[in-house]
Amino acid sequence: MLLTYQNIDGLTRTGVYISAILAGTLVAERLQTEQTLGLDVTANPKGMAVLHYDTEQSEAQLQENLGKTLRRAGVESVPQFYHSLYLASLSRKDRLKIIRESMALFHHRHGGIHLVVIDGIADLIL
């Protein structure tokens, strides 16, 4: 089945696009646009940090989606610079603290940040 904007519901659509964007940043050379749903995603040849914070999904769903992202990128294992953090079980205050502190840590560890995705950013707003 070909996934198009018309046949993917809202939550699924968001997840598919996030996966496509993340996949494009897990490799050193630009993926074909078919792999990134037509998006022009800048590759990550320097291996800078790619951070994915999720405030909505279960840990199991986050792991399942990670597998899909890796397959889309054509990589067999999680790159050392990729960090996916499950935040759904935490309070808003703790989520913000972890995001802030981990961004500083991973920026230092990987020589910069290539991409930050906060899935469910509305959950961080008062």
Quantity of strands, as a count: 3
Main beta sheet, described? Answer: 3 strands, parallel
What percentage of amino acids are in beta strands? Answer: 5-15%
Query: Which strand order does the major sheet show?
Result: 2-1-3
User: Which sequence of SSEs, written as H and E, runs from N to C?
Assistant: HEHEHE
Number of helices: 3
Query: Which structural class is indicated by helix and strand composition?
Result: alpha/beta
Q: What is the first-to-last residue Cα distance?
A: 40 Å
Helix content: 25-40%
Q: Give the overall shape, derived from the CA principal axes.
A: globular
| Poorly predicted sequence stretches spanning 5 or more consecutive residues | 1-10
Q: Evaluate the radius of gyration.
A: 15 Å
Count the domains: 1
Query: What value does the average pLDDT take?
Result: 89
Give structural notes.
This protein is α/β, with parallel strands linked by helices. 40% of the residues lie in helices and 14% in strands. Strands 2-1-3 form a three-stranded parallel sheet, sandwiched between helices. Strand 1 (49-54), helix 2 (59-73) and strand 2 form a beta-alpha-beta unit. Helix 1 crosses helix 2 (59-73). The longest helix has 19 residues, at 92-110. Mean pLDDT is 89; it is low at 1-10. This is AAA domain-containing protein.
